[in-house]
Amino acid sequence: MRVKAATMDFYDALDVSYSAPLNLAQPGRGRKRYEITKDQVEHLRSLYFSWEAIAGILQVSVSTLQRRRKGFGLSDSVSFYSDLSDDELDEIYKSITGSSTTGHLNTPNIGRRRFIGALRSRGLNVQRWRISECLRRVDPVGTALRWRMTIHRRKYYVPTPNSLWHIDSGHKLISALSETEIEHFGVDPNGVLAVEDEDYQVEISPPLISLPDEQLPQLPDPLSDDGNGGKDLYLQCIEIINMFPTSS
Fold first, then answer.
1. Mind listing the pLDDT tens digit of every residue in the chain (248 residues)?
2. What letter would DSSP give residue 10?
3. CA distances (Å), 92 to each of 81, 132, 137, 224, 245, in order?
4. CA spacing 20 to 30 A to 45: which of 55, 67, 132, 236?
């Protein structure tokens, strides 16, 4: 029912003008029947539309379409695969890609989906697994190259939800501070501003701290998330550094 509702909403959004007309010449009382021909249903089914999609195109319910299908004597399954051997399928692929001696160069880099479309344009319907095996037999190099172009989903292992965010923008092209921030904080990318210019501009000398190698593993990992924006890690580092004598 959800598929039917989604299909009907899709065609309603497109403002489809066509709908199956009613047979107004039908004698007797009661609701008039829809004029749906067998050729219409067979043609739409030959284009590999589902019954829900066909009902949406004709603007009728699926149950009405199923009653007409049974009345027309049409099969419910789509088991009308073409009777092609592997050799015939390989020759068709070679003729499309230009790999055969008689074929001309058309689409040498054709993949499975485009090959399925090319077969259906010729009125042929072949299983996907047979098409995949055909591509591996005839064009193993091209198949391997196309597999290399696939985008693999990255795997992340984060301690908590929402610990990792991606912002799709060119931050490397943006300055760290704007002109207003540079003027406010007293930061000049071309050099250090004079401290005497403003009272709130304070010059801080860089720290000179050296720890032995055996003390470095005791420091917390700055890449881990403590849930407080790194404040707890900073305080832990300061506490550990103050425990050991430092030398400049």
1. 444 455 556 555 555 567 787 877 778 787 888 888 889 888 888 777 888 989 888 888 999 999 988 988 888 776 567 888 999 999 999 888 876 555 455 677 888 999 998 998 888 888 899 999 999 999 998 888 888 877 777 777 777 777 776 655 565 555 555 666 556 655 555 555 554 555 555 555 655 666 667 766 666 665 565 555 566 666 777 777 777 665 55
2. H
3. 16, 14, 13, 57, 80
4. 132
